[in-house]
């Protein structure tokens, strides 16, 4: 089972069972706003926002047990993914929970709508004054220093003992989000030595689809299954340009039709504005799925800012939107994230459980591990190692970065470490224990040795060539690595579906059971927090995970 541990002094969740029935009891609190946020003053009482209340699901542990069973290659139930209705029987709240929470809201003159495929979310438009009264809170305005954006948040909030057991999370409340989520950066790298393998010499200094095909044995054979798909979420007005994709294909995939494109869906008022000046570097996700997962259908879901509560609202909305579909995508790769310590434990857990539900239905959920080394999703000042989120969720696959060829070397920005919220899952316990034994006392006291360890795998992530606004250049970031690995999974899924088999779904138990199917990376580290970080060692490590793809070996592990 996957347990939880709390980071001492971070977030407190009160035990309310012994409290008087009608007395507000502390639900969650934090001492201060995270680094990078400045307190401005009291939030205007008339300010309005969408308050989301996550209801406790009736059987999350049952869903977890089922997921791990159907994702275990040695189980007779392997690949028997669940339907939407079957998943929802686990996630749905009890009637008692819905009645109690709705009664509480009605008594406070708040009308809430039920949302979420399983009916496990309530949402209502409220003013700050209403939220303060409802939650015995004190909403304040905090400014995100880097972007200048302001948010209403409270450092503590309470609910009556009669409803506390039925609520999993409340947002926005004490969770903060970084509105400038990790993006890859333009870069130019120096040359590296290559050996005599059939890898273009240019791959030592710049990465293209041809390099990935040579390095990892990725085939150019077009996929054939229309039901197979990869979904790429986009946030913060990072627009995928069709003209740039065409130029990319003309430069780097001359063997396929340059008119090959992608589908677009919008959410929360999102748009995909076309034109060179609107180009976003995050569009590399589209270029490296269309350009590597040959002929696999790709959908770009552009998430707008109508969530009223920042990118965390977008994360909630997209996973709920995908979960509401009768047929889910086989792969979803996301290149954005937060720091785990910026979120409440309740919200982090609810989001993680939503990814668990997608995995149970057959979706491989991938996230870039982050670009801050041991400093978390992004570089920051720290005295102990930080954790990226959602990368630290145990029900998804986190992808780190490497560079170079023969050998590949861990990228120093590749975020990795150990969650302070989620415990070490069984599927990686042996691999993680082996690493910690070899590590010894290095970094002792700076990380949680019993936490979920990440990343799980890695791929090239430095000087990856893209076209942005009509110009070709290189980018660095785990944002490049995740869609590359997603493309490998998409191609294997295509063969599985063509053979009448189930797609891979939640990957991690299969990955760790087939560690030999990856190119082990044993050089490099991810420094930060005044240390050298974690070293890449033989076997799994918290910089490159199990290593980079070996397509032929992975295909064999999938049963071919």
From TrEMBL:
GO cellular component: extracellular region
SMART domains: Pro-kuma_activ
PROSITE patterns assigned: SEDOLISIN (PS51695)
Annotated catalysed reactions: Release of an N-terminal tripeptide from a polypeptide
Subcellular localization(s) per the UniProt record: Secreted, Extracellular space
Co-factor(s): Ca(2+)
CDD domains membership: Peptidases_S53, Pro-peptidase_S53
GO BP annotation list: proteolysis
Cofactor: how bound: Binds 1 Ca(2+) ion per subunit.
InterPro entries membership: Peptidase_S8/S53_dom (IPR000209), Peptidase_S8/S53_dom_sf (IPR036852), S53_propep (IPR015366), Sedolisin_dom (IPR030400), Tripeptidyl-peptidase_I (IPR050819)
Pfam families: Peptidase_S8, Pro-kuma_activ
Enzyme Commission number(s): 3.4.14.10
Keywords assigned: Calcium, Hydrolase, Metal-binding, Protease, Serine protease, Signal, Zymogen
Domain Peptidase S53, chain residue ranges per copy: 206-560
Superkingdom of the source species: Eukaryota
Broad class of where this protein is predominantly found: secreted
Record-listed Ca(2+) binding positions: 520-521, 539, 541
GO molecular function, one term: tripeptidyl-peptidase activity
Signal peptide positions on this chain: 1-18
Its job: Secreted tripeptidyl-peptidase which degrades proteins at acidic pHs and is involved in virulence.
Name listed for the protein in its UniProt record: tripeptidyl-peptidase II
């Amino acid at each position: 089972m996957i347990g939880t541990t709390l980071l001492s002094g971070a977030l407190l969740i009160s035990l309310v069972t012994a409290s008087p029935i009608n007395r507000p009891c502390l639900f969650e609190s934090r001492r201060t706003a995270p680094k990078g946020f400045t307190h401005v003053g009291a939030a205007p009482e008339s300010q309005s926002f969408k308050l989301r209340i996550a209801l406790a699901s009736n059987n999350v542990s049952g869903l977890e047990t089922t997921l791990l069973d159907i994702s275990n290659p040695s189980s007779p139930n392997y690949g028997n993914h669940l339907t939407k209705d079957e998943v929802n029987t686990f996630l749905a709240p009890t009637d008692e929970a819905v009645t109690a929470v709705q009664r509480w809201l009605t008594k406070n003159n708040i009308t809430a709508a039920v949302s979420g495929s399983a009916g496990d979310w309530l949402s209502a438009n409220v003013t700050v004054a209403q939220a303060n009264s409802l939650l015995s809170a004190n909403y304040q305005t905090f400014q995100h220093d880097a972007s200048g954006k302001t948010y209403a948040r409270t450092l503590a909030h309470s609910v009556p003992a009669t409803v506390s057991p039925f609520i999993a999370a409340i947002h926005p409340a004490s969770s903060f989000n970084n509105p400038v989520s990790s993006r890859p950066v333009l870069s130019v790298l120096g040359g590296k030595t290559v050996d005599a393998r059939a890898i273009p010499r240019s791959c030592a200094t710049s990465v293209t689809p041809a390099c990935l095909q040579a390095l990892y044995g990725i085939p150019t054979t077009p996929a054939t299954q229309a039901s197979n798909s990869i979904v790429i979420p986009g946030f913060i007005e990072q627009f995928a340009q069709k003209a740039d994709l065409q130029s990319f294909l003309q430069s780097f995939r001359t063997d396929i039709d340059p008119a090959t494109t992608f589908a677009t869906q919008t959410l929360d008022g999102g748009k995909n504005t076309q034109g060179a000046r609107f180009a976003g570097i995050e569009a590399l996700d589209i270029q490296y799925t269309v350009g590597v997962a040959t002929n696999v259908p790709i959908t770009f879901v552009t998430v707008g800012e109508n969530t009223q509560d920042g990118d965390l609202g977008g994360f909630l909305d997209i996973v709920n939107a995908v979960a509401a579909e009768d047929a889910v995508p086989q792969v979803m790769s996301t290149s954005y994230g937060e720091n785990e310590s910026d979120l409440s434990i309740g919200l982090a857990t609810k989001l993680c459980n939503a990814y668990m539900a997608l995995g149970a239905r057959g979706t491989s959920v991938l996230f870039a591990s982050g670009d801050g080394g041991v400093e978390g999703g992004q570089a920051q000042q720290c005295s102990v190692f930080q954790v990226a989120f959602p990368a630290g969720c145990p029900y998804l696959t986190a992808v780190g970065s490497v560079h170079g060829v023969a050998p590949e070397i861990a990228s120093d920005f590749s975020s990795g470490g150990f969650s302070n919220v989620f415990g070490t899952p069984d599927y990686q316990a042996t691999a993680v224990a082996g690493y910690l034994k070899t590590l010894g006392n290095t970094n002792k006291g700076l990380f949680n040795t019993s936490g979920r360890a990440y990343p799980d795998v890695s791929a090239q992530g430095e000087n990856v060539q893209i076209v942005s606004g009509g110009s070709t250049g290189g980018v660095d970031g785990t944002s490049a690595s995740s869609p590359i690995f997603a493309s490998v999974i998409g191609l294997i899924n295509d063969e599985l579906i063509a053979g009448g088999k189930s797609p891979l779904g939640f990957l991690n138990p299969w990955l760790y059971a087939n560690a030999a199917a990856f190119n082990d990376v044993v050089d490099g580290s991810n420094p930060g927090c005044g240390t050298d970080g974690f070293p890449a060692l033989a076997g799994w490590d918290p910089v490159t995970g199990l290593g980079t793809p070996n397509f032929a070996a992975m295909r064999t592990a999938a049963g071919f």
